[in-house]
Amino acid sequence: MTTAAGTPVAVVTGASSGIGAATARELAAAGYEVVLTARREDRIRALADELTSAGHRARAHVLDVTDRAAVDALAASLDRCDVLVNNAGGALGAETVATGDPADWQRMYEVNVIGTLHVTQALLPALTASGAGTVVVISSTAGLDTYEGGAGYAAAKHGAHVLAKTLRLEIVGTPVRVIEIAPGMVRTEEFATTRFRGDTEKAAKVYAGVAEPLTARDVAETVAWAVTRPAHVNVDLLVLRPRAQASNTKVHREL
Ligand code: NDP
């Protein structure tokens, strides 16, 4: 199977901050035309402008991954799609199972799982037509194991993990590979602040005393590395943690 000629196109969801923005930068540098999607238009436009000014190809497309009609409109607007990075997502709350808000659980499932489902379903025909398509799912180590206070997020990320694993089984034999990247602790600007609803003190505690949590760039470089392997090489599942984190619950803190 050969790849279509011309500049390959990579769609990145949640490209307005953190891992998504860093991934868009890495893929643009690797020669992809990047389609930056997120709900915050000002941020993705600014990043698209920055990348185009640097000589790369980039454009912004406002998208809420939970809005299927909007996702279908994105798919219809693309001439081609070679790579899809399902990155939009995150955590809401850190309450126990006994006290968690079901609305938070619902929202996390909606964005992390159904959002990934919508975008993957909508772009799969174009990814297949490319002759060498790649679906990336940014899950989490919370998609492989759990921790106290993490059940809602872990349940959603386990859902994303199962989606990736099942899709890989179902489309084997087609020219599309499914790559799951499962990061552990990554210090991004917004992840923990969103989780704790703007409480920056609580958010800071997540990383307290940890010498070097992963950065968005660490994850983005890993995504770019996996995506730029030859088309027959499938980085099936890659777990990425900072050296100071041995498991979801075993973190070395110098306090
Ligand atoms: P951020 O909070 O910085 O980024 C989340 C991104 O998702 C934003 O760009 C946001 O954009 C977008 N997003 C959220 N909801 C929607 C929606 N409904 N539709 C479209 N886009 C949406 O977090 P990170 O960069 O840290 O995380 C990125 C991904 O990596 C997430 O899936 C997260 O769960 C996962 N992850 C993060 C880890 C960490 O420790 N930080 C560890 C492991 C995994 P906007 O608000 O503009 O729509």
The CATH superfamily label reads NAD(P)-binding Rossmann-like Domain
Class by helix and strand content? alpha/beta
Q: Any idea what the radius of gyration is?
A: 18 Å
Domains (count)? 1
Distance between the termini: 54 Å
Count the E strands. 7
Shape: globular
Contiguous runs where pLDDT drops below 50 for at least 5 residues: none
Query: Which CATH top level class fits?
Result: Alpha Beta
Number of helices: 8
Q: Fill in the CATH topology.
A: Rossmann fold
CATH architecture: 3-Layer(aba) Sandwich
What's the pLDDT, averaged over the residues?
97
Name the ligand types. Answer: NADPH dihydro-nicotinamide-adenine-dinucleotide phosphate
Q: Helix and strand string, N-terminal first? A: EHEHEHEHEHEHHHE
> Beta-strand percentage?
5-15%
Strand line-up of the largest beta sheet: 3-2-1-4-5-6-7
Biggest β-sheet: count, sense, barrel? 7 strands, parallel
What is the share of helical residues? 40-55%
Protein name: SDR family oxidoreductase
InterPro entries: KR_dom, NAD(P)-bd_dom_sf, Sc_DH/Rdtase_CS, SDR_fam
Organism: Streptomyces yaizuensis
Domain Ketoreductase: 8-189
